[in-house]
Structures are given as structure tokens and as C-alpha cells.
Design goal:
The chain has nine helices and 20 strands. It is α+β, with helices and mostly antiparallel strands and 399 residues long. It folds into two domains: 176 residues, Immunoglobulin-like (Sandwich); 169 residues, Rossmann fold (3-Layer(aba) Sandwich), CATH 3.40.50. The strands form five sheets. Strands 1, 3, 5, 6, 8, 9, 10 and 11 form an eight-stranded mixed beta sheet that branches. Strands 17-16-15-18-19 form a five-stranded mixed beta sheet, sandwiched between helices.
């Protein structure tokens, strides 16, 4: 894509046709008045060409957008046009009739979605000043979008020649899947797997949680918890007591399977929305660790302690996920996802598997055991068949 481009408009070609006719007639008939008219027409054409080019010199653009939003939400794009003050005092005239064109393209996942176009007009931009322009768009499909590049053009003053420039390379924005609601049945199942998760208890000498009060020393308490000033006053050992932090942990394996595993194409999108609702609810309402693996066309993994940045990363992975083709092997990606979730350096966590198909929980457990090896054990495991009505038992897609 050329950064600068100058073309002669249709009106300009008509103008040149008349100019050549007048110039040829003046030479052929030796009419001085026609020669003067042809000279004036040529001078006006050159002035319009130079003015159009000079109008865009020193013009820059800044775009302000949110880094991410949810599918269906309103996107507001703020454009700030700025014109530099020229050093030449004879070039202080501002830019007029500026046309700004932007395109919004869907990059991932790969779909045949038409691009969106935004057309704005700035009637006058003084030299050394800025101008604010705003437009809004609504993106209904999840994925990664590119806004831009921005093309600015002008044909002022005569509209015979159109000069355009590319001001930037564009920005990318992530459109997250739209979330729904988790049903009470899902909350009950989640509590069951958390209760069944034994894990490793916190050490008694570790200062975690908020300060609760003082109590008498018991066998097994660490020396670092002793409050020495109170102990000296009372004459008996007193230790500080803290409220225990209830940290919850979860492994989420989202197996999108093949396109033929679902009764319709919209079911795969509902599965992705279900997974997005789970990680959103877990990261916003709980204090713990969540790890997620997505087995789609390729394996995507992420996780860590609950944090807004982690939620953004996980939703970005779900925004770009897509199911496999019918020729791809599903079990290989499933094994790789289990190996990521159950690494030998970490303890086992409760695991929730979203999988389309008729396999029972025992078969999936055996496949998971073969995936992680003999030296590593898995925690409580639950499986939801996303190809049948079991999905709606745990997930409500309405907003």
C-alpha cells in the first residue's frame, strides 16, 4: 500500500480535455485570447495540484480506543488530527475538506466476514491546531480486529486532483465472547469438586489473611507468630491469629472437537461462551489459581493467579479459538492439554472438562492418566458433554 498517492479525478480529466482543446485551437488559429485562457487553465490546474499536496503535509493522527470489549458492545473510536506549524510564514493556511477513511477488518479466527468502513469529513484544520473526530461501530463477532490503516485525502480547492496519505498502520482490538449465566447446578457441582480437593494445607506459621486477634500458644505453632510484647505482659506465650484465606483452584480443559461433533454451527459458539463465563466468574469472584487449555484447531494454554490481566489473556484465547477440521486428530491435542494442566512441578487441581462426544467419564479419566504419566496424579475431575442438552443444565446463554 502506497503511503502517498495522487490521482486525477474524473472532473480533472474533463478539465484537461477542455484545456487541450483550447490550447490546440489557439495554436491552430493563432488566437492570442485563447492562448491566455489556456495559460490560466494550466496555472489553475497546477495550483490545485500543489495545494492538495501541501494541505496534507504535517498532518498526523492519534487514535484512542479500548484494548478490548465484548461482542455486541458499542465501540467508540476517537481520532485526533493534528497539524504542525510550518516554518514558512507563507504556508500558514490551514487544511480544508479533509476526508478520513478507516476500515475495520476481522483477522482471527478466519471467517468470510465483510470489512466495515468509516468515512469522516473535517472541513477545516488550522495549522498548529488539533481536531477531534469520533465514530461508533458495533462488532457482533468475537475475534481479533484491525482498525485502520487510516487514509486521509483532499481535493481542495478545485476538486480536479485528489491527493491521499496513509497516516498509520492501524491498531488491533480483541472482541471477547459474550458471557451468559451459570446455573445453580453448576455452582453445586463446582462446590463439590472444591470440597473433594484435598491439596496441601497452609503452614501454620505462615502469615496469611487479615489479622484476627491473639490466642494462647498451642503445640505446633511457629515461633514467628508469637507476639512478644503481649507475652511479656501476660507471662504466658500468646500468638497472633489470622483469618484463613479460602483459595480455590481450577483446571479448565475446553475441547472444541470437530465441526461434525455438534448438531449445528452455533453450538460451538455457545461452548466458547460457556467457557468464557466460567473463567470470568472465577477470576472476578474468587481468589485462587485457574489454568485453561483450549484444544481447537491448535492448542492454546494460559493461566495463573486470578487477576484482571489474566482474565483478559484467557478471554483473548477464547476469542480466537475455533474447532478442528474433520481430518485432524482430537486425542493428540487432548493429551497435550492434559500435560499442560498437570505438570509434575505443580500439585493436582480439580479439573473440569468441556468435551463434545459420547465418551464417559471413565474413558476420559483413563486418557488423562495416560497423558500425564504415572508419577503424577489428578485431582477431582468432572466432565460436561457439550454436544447434547447437558450444556443447558449448567449454562444459561441469556444475558
Amino acid at each position: 500500500m502506497r503511503r502517498r498517492h495522487t490521482v486525477i479525478c474524473r472532473e480533472g480529466w474533463y478539465y484537461l480535455l477542455v484545456f487541450f482543446f483550447v490550447a490546440f485551437s489557439s495554436v491552430l488559429r493563432n488566437v492570442n485570447l485563447l492562448m491566455i485562457v489556456a495559460t490560466i487553465m494550466l496555472f489553475a490546474f497546477i495550483i490545485g495540484w500543489r495545494t492538495a499536496i501541501r494541505s496534507l503535509n504535517g498532518v498526523s493522527l492519534r487514535r484512542k480506543i479500548t484494548a478490548s470489549l465484548t461482542a455486541g458492545d458499542l465501540l467508540e473510536v476517537n481520532l485526533q488530527l493534528q497539524s504542525k506549524t510550518p516554518q514558512n510564514p507563507f504556508a500558514r493556511a490551514g487544511s480544508r475538506c479533509l476526508e478520513i477513511d478507516e476500515t475495520i477488518r476481522h483477522l482471527a479466527p478466519k471467517r468470510q466476514l465483510p470489512k466495515k468502513a468509516a468515512h469522516l469529513v473535517c472541513w477545516y484544520l488550522p495549522r498548529g491546531r488539533t481536531k477531534q473526530l469520533t465514530y461508533r461501530a458495533r462488532l457482533y463477532e468475537r475475534g481479533i480486529y484491525r482498525i485502520g490503516p487510516t487514509r486521509i485525502a483532499t481535493g481542495f480547492p478545485l476538486g480536479l486532483i485528489r491527493h491521499s496519505r496513509i497516516l498509520d498502520r492501524g491498531d488491533r482490538i480483541a472482541v471477547f465472547p459474550r458471557t451468559g449465566h451459570l446455573t445453580p447446578a453448576f455452582g453445586k457441582m463446582f462446590q463439590q469438586i472444591q470440597v473433594g480437593f484435598g491439596g496441601h494445607p497452609l503452614r501454620q506459621d505462615r502469615q496469611t489473611g487479615d489479622f484476627h486477634g491473639l490466642r494462647e500458644w498451642k503445640e505446633g505453632d511457629g515461633r514467628r507468630l508469637i507476639h512478644w510484647k503481649s507475652t511479656a505482659r501476660r507471662g504466658t506465650p500468646l500468638v497472633r491469629e489470622f483469618e484463613k484465606q479460602q483459595q480455590q483452584q481450577l483446571n479448565l480443559l475446553v475441547d472444541l472437537g470437530n465441526r461434525g461433533d455438534y448438531p449445528d454451527e452455533a453450538r460451538c459458539e455457545e461452548v466458547i461462551r460457556f467457557a468464557a463465563t466460567i473463567v470470568t466468574d472465577f477470576c472476578r469472584r474468587r481468589d485462587g489459581v485457574v489454568r485453561m487449555a483450549i484444544a481447537g484447531r491448535e492448542l492454546s494454554c494460559g493461566g495463573g493467579p486470578c487477576h484482571p490481566l489474566l482474565l483478559s489473556d484467557l478471554l483473548t484465547l477464547l476469542a480466537t479459538a475455533e474447532p478442528r477440521s474433520d481430518d485432524d486428530d482430537s486425542n493428540s491435542l487432548f493429551r497435550e492439554g492434559m500435560k499442560y494442566l498437570f505438570r509434575p512441578t505443580e500439585r493436582s487441581r480439580p479439573t473440569l472438562i468441556l468435551h463434545p462426544g459420547s465418551e464417559n467419564l471413565r474413558e476420559l479419566t483413563l486418557l488423562a492418566d495416560r497423558s500425564i504419566g504415572e508419577n503424577q496424579t489428578i485431582g477431582p475431575l468432572r466432565w460436561i458433554d457439550t454436544s447434547n442438552e447437558m450444556l443447558w443444565h449448567f449454562f444459561d446463554p441469556t444475558e
